[in-house]
Every structure is written in structure tokens, then in C-alpha cells.
Design a protein that fits this description.
Elements: H1 2-39, E1 43-44, H2 48-56, E2 61-73, E3 78-79, E4 87-103, E5 108-122, E6 125-128, E7 139-141, E8 153-161, H3 166-175, E9 177-190, E10 194-204, E11 207-211, E12 220-222, H4 226-270
Helix pairs in contact: 1-4
Length: 271
């Protein structure tokens, strides 16, 4: 009975190892295909080279490219409400109240989120060539709110405990609720930060404009250089490849051990 239990567990281990190896191999192949497609996308900086390519392209349009540059405000930039000398082109401020309510069934205070206020501000902005804030050619970013990817940086976060006072005590007794804390956070796309945008680029007057592609491909904004974005995908592909090898070798080793054990048992019986 003991040998049977051990054999069953080993066989389960063999099956699980090969199953995970197959799953990781599938994820590796998917990531590899995604990486290949990403590397096929032309990459530009907002410089004279991009200007020349756009000018010579049909309809002065590039259907799907990546543009990497520094964020520059098209007008007076937004100032952080909490951090001195912090300026940006996109701003998101969230104020979240946390409170507790009296649960008459359990006779305890239970936590919950109460009022939430969100404020979003923006100004037009462009991408300029890294190393120079002043350039003759720039690429305006159109409707960044339509883009996917999370490209805002948290510049401020604070949680303040609610003050105990006579008013709060009275309200607590009447409504069965009491404030606990106030959470404030601010996120911005800062002036001078690096942004890589995947989209359609068109010539507009003397500058370029990147916008959501008309062919349905993803309009993607990444708050890192293009090279860092590719390296992140390469590390992910490498991880799935290593996991495929490790689980495959583990399954093969366990299976070899089972076969060796079975052959040894048969030899003992034949003797």
C-alpha cells in the first residue's frame, strides 16, 4: 500500500511537471511572437530624420511606429498641488475618504470606502528629441486619454487620520458611521520625462502628430525608453523559457526514476 501511494504521488508529480512545462512553453511562444512583432515596428525620435521620412511618405503618414522623446508642454504646464517645483502636462488627483459603519449583526465596526473625488487636468504636449528642449521639429501627442498603458507617475501620497471631535461623535451616534482617514494622491506625466508612444504619425504643418491608429492597432503610451520596454519583454520571455526547461527536466527525471524502479522490481522478481 505504501509503495502504491509513493508511485501514485510520483506519477502525479511527473504529470504535473510535464503539464506545467507545456503551459510555460505555450506562454514562451506567445511572448516570443509578441516580441518579434514589437521589434518589427519602426522606431523614431522627433528629429530631422523623422521629418524627412514623413515628408517622403505617401500622404505624409506612417501607419504604425514608435516615437520616443521628452515630454514638453505646449502651453503653461500644470503645477503640482502638493509638491513644489513639480510640473506636468497630465494630472490626476484622488481624494478618498475611509470610514467605518456599525454592523448591528456582528456588533462590530466594519471598514468601507466612503466619498471619493477625482480631478483630472491636462494641457497639450509634444515629444521633443532627448538632449534638447528646444527643437525645430516636434511630435504632438493627440488625445493621450485614448491610449492604453499606465504612464502617470505618483508624485504625492498621504493618509491623514481623522480627528476625534464632538461633532464626529454626535454624527457617529446618529448615523452609525464614523470617519477614519483621508487619503490623498497625485499622479502626473511630468515635463521632461521620457515617453514612448506607439501609434500613427502624420505630418501637420511643420511638425508631426501621433494619434490612435485607424487600423485598430493599439495606441500605447509607455513611460520608459523603447529599449527598456523591449528588454522587459525579453526578460519575460527568458523567464518562461527557463521555467519550461526546469519543469521539463524535473518531469523527465521523475519519469526516469519510475522506469528505473519498475525495471529493478521486475529483475528482482525474475530472480
Amino acid at each position: 500500500m505504501g509503495d502504491f501511494s509513493i508511485s501514485t504521488l510520483v506519477l502525479l508529480g511527473v504529470g504535473s511537471s510535464f503539464a506545467f512545462s507545456g503551459l510555460f512553453h505555450h506562454l514562451y511562444q506567445q511572448k516570443k511572437k509578441e516580441l518579434t512583432k514589437l521589434k518589427e515596428i519602426p522606431v523614431f525620435r522627433p528629429d530631422e530624420h523623422l521629418y524627412t521620412v514623413l515628408k517622403s511618405s505617401p500622404h505624409r503618414r506612417l501607419q504604425y511606429v514608435a516615437v520616443e522623446g521628452l515630454v514638453q508642454a505646449g502651453e503653461k504646464p500644470l503645477s503640482s498641488q502638493f509638491v513644489p517645483r513639480c510640473f506636468g502636462v497630465l494630472q490626476k488627483i484622488v481624494v478618498q475618504e475611509h470610514g467605518e459603519y456599525w454592523n448591528s449583526l456582528t456588533k462590530t465596526w466594519s471598514s468601507r470606502r466612503m466619498n471619493s473625488r477625482e480631478t483630472n487636468n491636462s494641457v497639450p504636449f509634444s515629444l521633443v528629441c532627448p538632449g534638447s528642449y528646444i527643437t525645430d521639429f516636434e511630435v504632438k501627442v493627440q488625445e493621450p486619454s485614448e491610449g492604453s498603458g499606465y504612464f502617470l507617475e505618483r508624485v504625492y501620497h498621504r493618509v491623514r487620520r481623522a480627528e476625534e471631535g464632538l461633532v464626529n461623535v454626535v454624527l457617529q451616534g446618529i448615523s452609525g458611521e464614523r470617519p477614519v482617514a483621508m487619503e490623498e494622491s497625485e499622479e502626473m506625466l511630468r515635463v521632461g520625462s521620457i515617453l514612448t508612444v506607439f501609434g500613427e504619425v502624420v505630418m501637420e504643418g511643420g511638425h508631426g502628430r501621433v494619434q490612435a491608429p485607424k487600423d485598430g492597432r493599439e495606441y500605447l503610451l509607455i513611460p520608459t525608453p523603447y529599449k527598456s520596454y523591449i528588454e522587459r519583454h525579453e526578460r519575460s520571455a527568458s523567464m518562461w523559457k527557463k521555467l519550461t526547461a526546469v519543469t521539463g527536466i524535473t518531469g523527465a527525471s521523475l519519469l526516469a526514476g519510475v522506469i528505473y524502479s519498475m525495471v529493478g522490481t521486475q529483475d528482482d522478481r525474475s530472480k
